[in-house]
Write a structure and sequence with these properties.
- The complex is a heterodimer of chains A (184) and B (198).
- By secondary structure, chain A is α+β, with helices and mostly antiparallel strands.
- Helix content of chain A is 44%, strand content 20%.
- In chain A, strands 1-2-3 form a three-stranded antiparallel β-sheet, with no helix packed on it. In chain A, strands 4-5-6 form a three-stranded antiparallel β-sheet, with no helix packed on it.
- In chain A, strand 1 and strand 2 form a beta hairpin.
- In chain A, 15% of the residues are buried.
- The mean pLDDT of chain A is 76.
- Chain B is mainly alpha-helical and 198 residues long.
- In chain B, 63% of the residues lie in helices and 0% in strands.
- Chain B contains seven helices and no strands.
- Chain B is globular, with a radius of gyration of 20 Å.
- The chains are: A alpha+beta (184), B mainly alpha (198).
- Chains A and B meet through helix 1, helix 3 and helix 4 of A and helix 1, helix 2, helix 4, helix 5 and helix 7 of B.
Chain lengths: 184, 198
């Protein structure tokens, strides 16, 4: 144990501030030097509480009057400029619940927003659309199309309930091709 | 016959005044011991009390108020020293004029007491702010180590370390100052003109 460590240990032991571990380390009987150190630390410690107060010649009354006046004026000034604390109408739990609800409403509104803003409402009925070389049926975002050879004439019919039929006659061979597709 | 309980409503100014009166001296002395300067101790003490009065509703319990004031005052003083570095010392003798009570007192005794306080203050300045605060709270104010740890916001082991370092440095400083032999068998150091407080 170094001198510094030993001195620190005696400084605590002499005044009863050592931990149990430190007391255990110093279990052996103190030698004369340590006893002297202990006495010295105890002597200093005994003298320190007298400095809890100011020396008797100190003009405390005068200083305290000045300080007290400053403090009271400062506190009054603080009251004047003190902003009104925000009203605490609800507790934090209720606030959290209301916040969540508000967030939910915002998300819900945002979710609905494209439909509100979409200028053209998607048709709910099945629509048959014929174009050269292609026949397509669609309903809202679903649909299918048949692509066929563009040469020759064609007949395109659309069912009202999601079925589609297309007849195609080959001019050269006279062969009739019928395509009937049901939209499920 | 029914007795009607009467509630005495204390005006805020009187309540505040009483609160300041009750705690001002101890807080000022504590701050002065830490910063070592009367003017700065005065400013810091005033700030601490103004803050305290702004939350006076929470400080109705006197014991709690004392503990709270100690904590705030110690931390304010340590923060002040950290911001400013080592503060120049103003001996208490250089501060306000002598009190009326001291006039006519034994000059020799006053000198000795003045030396004693100055020696103590010089010895405190040889410590770091945290060691100084720990020593003042534990050995001068007599607070238990747990309270010192709470005030400084650290563990009890750290407080023990601060106190041990402070006492060792304090002893060395006093030995040098009173020019007593460093031999461990030399008589213990004493502050001039003061009886040991038992």
């Amino acid at each position: 144990m170094t001198d510094k460590t030993r001195e620190s240990l005696r400084a605590l032991l002499a005044n009863g501030d050592a931990s149990w571990w430190q007391r255990l380390k110093a279990w052996r009987k103190a030698d004369a030097e340590e006893v002297s150190l202990d006495h010295e630390f105890q002597q200093i410690r005994r003298q320190l509480p007298q400095f809890r107060d100011l020396p008797p010649y100190f003009a405390w009354d005068e200083l305290s009057r000045e300080m007290k006046a400053n403090i009271l004026v400062g506190a009054e000034a603080g009251d004047v400029v003190k902003t009104t604390p925000p009203l605490r109408v609800i507790g934090w739990k209720a606030g959290l619940a209301m916040g969540s609800l508000t967030m939910l409403m915002i998300v819900g509104y945002w979710w609905q927003l494209p439909r509100h803003l979409a200028g053209v409402v998607a048709p709910t009925q099945a629509v048959l659309q014929a174009s050269p070389g292609q026949l397509a049926v669609y309903q809202q975002d679903k649909g299918f199309s048949i692509v066929f050879e563009e040469t020759g004439s064609s007949l395109e019919l659309g069912g009202a309930s999601g079925s589609m039929r297309a007849d195609y006659v080959d001019q050269e061979t006279g062969q009739l091709t019928v395509a009937h597709v049901y939209l499920d | 016959m029914h007795e009607r309980a009467e509630t005495v409503v204390v005006p805020p100014v009187d309540r505040r005044s009483a609160f300041v009166e009750l705690h001002l001296k101890r807080v000022f002395v504590l701050v002065y011991r830490i910063v070592g300067n009367v003017a700065d101790a005065q400013d810091i003490t005033q700030d601490v009390f103004i803050k305290a009065l702004q939350r006076e509703d929470q400080l109705r319990d006197s014991a709690k108020a004392t503990q709270w004031l100690h904590r705030i005052a110690s931390n304010a003083a340590i923060d002040f020293l950290r911001r400013r570095g080592r503060a120049p010392q103003t001996a208490i003798e250089d501060g306000p004029e002598l009190s009326d009570a001291s006039r006519g007192a034994d000059p020799e005794q006053m000198l000795l007491r003045g030396e004693s306080h100055q020696l103590f203050q010089d010895a405190l300045q040889s410590l770091t702010p945290r060691e100084r605060t720990a020593l003042v709270l534990r050995d001068v104010e007599g607070l238990p180590a747990e309270s010192v740890a709470q005030t400084l916001g650290c563990s009890k082991a750290t407080v023990r370390s601060h106190i041990a370092n402070a006492r060792v440095k304090f002893r060395k400083f006093l030995r040098r100052r009173v020019q007593v032999s460093t031999s461990p068998t030399a008589p213990p150091v004493e502050f001039p003109g003061e009886e040991a407080a038992e």
